């Protein structure tokens, strides 16, 4: 790939990572409001929020095969319109069942977009010969942060959740379609080695990568879903601005991912992962200690910085394991790692129902300790 072409591919990669999650960022900032409007308990909200990961995770298997067959560009062109259309439906929920159903369908569609953008980023990274995965996911987090700010601002003007999601979808649709249309076609690298046998088992190294990333996604899922509720109920930060916790969290995820590639290049993935996971562990302890609203923002910042680079490092490490099965490895890693989004939020919700939300955050500590121990598994051999 020539320099000018590679620079254009990197730019478009960052653009699609940024624009894609804006609408979902709006949703994250309005979760506490939807809970209040629908009169949901913590356990009811926890079960409702299961919808998205339960829709996403089983679909990842089919998404990986489709992206392999169609290529990431065509897959994204097909999945972006329904993703944004279905993204409005959580704002129409009238109870826990309809909220679960809307999030389930949304997760099923999002799976194709997740695999598409990550496989495209992995191909650009290999074609350019330099690390871009953390930066790409930094733009994803920036998109969530911008979306959460939009959601908070629209809440200040008394726009309900449905209207805010519809506005976000209407703005993002043309942008996403244009960016996806002009994405360059990058073939998977050609290899001259013997073809891998059909049905080859998943390598042990990939399972260890999944376990490492799982500890971080368990935390990330819990923070995104419960941050606004925590600020309202635990930190007593109401006044309609509790969604700023999502903004702070996403903002520091963005910062970590933007500097992650440089740190990775200089010190290596193992050092980067270990330092980040230690920051997440400290942040969770701060939140569990409940020092008040402003220290809680510091806690969310530490956690955001801590989980920032782990999933991108997992994508790169998974794609590097096999030269002939990028999409399979990435989809398997994504399936396993994003199981944290399936397990974390409801586990926190049920524990919070029995105790309190700050105490429930302590459930995240063992997974983080295990991830710190296995951090060296994210280094590309």
UniProtKB/TrEMBL annotation:
Principal place of residence: membrane
Q: Which GO terms describe its cellular component?
A: membrane
Q: What is this protein called?
A: MFS transporter
**Which organism's genome codes for this protein?**
Aliiroseovarius halocynthiae
Which segments cross the bilayer?
Answer: 45-63, 75-93, 99-124, 136-156, 162-183, 204-223, 243-259, 271-291, 297-320, 332-353, 359-380
UniProt keywords, alphabetically: Membrane, Transmembrane, Transmembrane helix
Record has Transmembrane helix as a keyword: yes
Q: Where in the cell is it found?
A: Membrane
